[in-house]
């Protein structure tokens, strides 16, 4: 018996028409450009807001605590980085993928507000020196957001494509400025934490990953094709994650050896 054929996926224009039935603002001229401008403004407000400012004040204490327990540096940079807003193009792409991949998309449509409810409209990436520093700092940032009643959520990401990071999200009260008015709303902000090694690899491989997310191929189709860029980039991501772990083991071996009087 022949297998049932799947319906052809919606084109982006068809999807946009569907989305407009739930939220008419998305087809108002200037909506997407205004949304991008709002994301940029929100990023500045969140960076200057009480949560990120308090995190900056506690950073020296966290650094000292991590060094005391590990003997290593926590961050590769002097200060916490600013937040950035998501571009209109990337917002549309992410929402379009939700239509394709998210089982509860219909429920999402029925409650679609003018500001899309996705996790990284406002985001930043913190680069840690060691992989256990990622775990340490993610816990500190999560606990601070809990302390400040910002409804945080924390995940440990490990993707087949070679992406390894931890994400801490929190809620921020903002105003959506559009059409001469401003409407109070809430956005989810995302902090990505990863090692500097994995960040360099991920930045280099990200264009490959972006293309692969648009394709409908099963992973097995590229996992067995060494000529596919995804084969190389994903394996490299896993190798770097392993290297990050080995670096911690080496650091600990040197530290405990010195403490016990052993030779380096």
What is the strand and helix layout of this fold?
Blueprint: H1 12-22, H2 31-48, H3 50-70, E1 84-85, H4 88-101, H5 105-110, E2 122-128, H6 131-147, E3 153-158, E4 164-178, E5 181-195, H7 196-214, H8 219-223, H9 229-259
Parallel strand pairs: 2-5
Antiparallel strand pairs: 1-2, 3-4, 4-5
Can you characterise this structure?
This protein has 264 residues and is of the alpha+beta class. Helix content is 54%, strand content 17%. It has a five-stranded mixed sheet. The radius of gyration is 22 Å and the shape is flat.
Distance between the termini: 69 Å
Query: Strand count, sense and closure of the main sheet?
Result: 5 strands, mixed
- Structural class given helices, strands, pairing? alpha+beta
SSE string, helix = H, strand = E? Answer: HHHEHHEHEEEHHH
Helix content: 40-55%
What's the arrangement of strands in the largest beta sheet?
1-2-5-4-3
**Average predicted local confidence, pLDDT:** 84
Question: Which descriptors apply to this entry?
Answer:
single chain, 264 residues, five-stranded mixed beta sheet, 54% helix
Short description:
54% of the residues lie in helices and 17% in strands. The chain is built from 9 helices and 5 strands.
């Amino acid at each position: 018996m022949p297998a049932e054929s799947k319906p052809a996926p919606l084109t982006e224009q068809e999807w946009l028409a569907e989305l407009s039935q739930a939220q008419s603002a998305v087809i108002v001229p200037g909506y997407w450009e205004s949304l991008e401008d709002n994301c940029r403004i929100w990023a500045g407000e969140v960076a200057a807001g009480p949560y990120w400012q308090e995190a900056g004040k506690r950073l020296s204490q966290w650094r000292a605590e991590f060094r005391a327990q590990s003997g290593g540096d926590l961050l590769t940079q002097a200060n916490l980085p600013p937040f950035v807003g998501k571009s209109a193009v990337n917002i549309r792409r992410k929402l379009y993928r939700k239509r394709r991949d998210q089982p509860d998309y219909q429920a999402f449509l029925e409650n679609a507000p003018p500001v899309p409810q996705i996790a990284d409209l406002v985001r930043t990436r913190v680069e840690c020196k060691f992989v256990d520093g990622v775990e340490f700092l993610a816990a500190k940032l999560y606990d601070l957001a809990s302390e400040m009643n910002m409804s945080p959520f924390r995940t440990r990401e490990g993707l087949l494509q070679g992406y390894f990071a931890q994400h801490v999200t929190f809620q921020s009260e903002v105003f959506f400025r559009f059409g001469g008015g401003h409407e109070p709303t809430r956005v989810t902000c995302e902090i990505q934490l990863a090692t500097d090694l994995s960040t360099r690899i991920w930045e280099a491989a990200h264009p490959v990953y972006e293309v692969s997310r648009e394709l409908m191929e099963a992973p097995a189709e590229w996992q067995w094709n060494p000529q596919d860029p995804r084969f190389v980039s994903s394996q490299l991501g896993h190798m770097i994650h392993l290297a990050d772990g080995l670096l911690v083991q080496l650091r600990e071996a040197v530290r405990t050896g010195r403490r016990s009087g052993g030779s380096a």
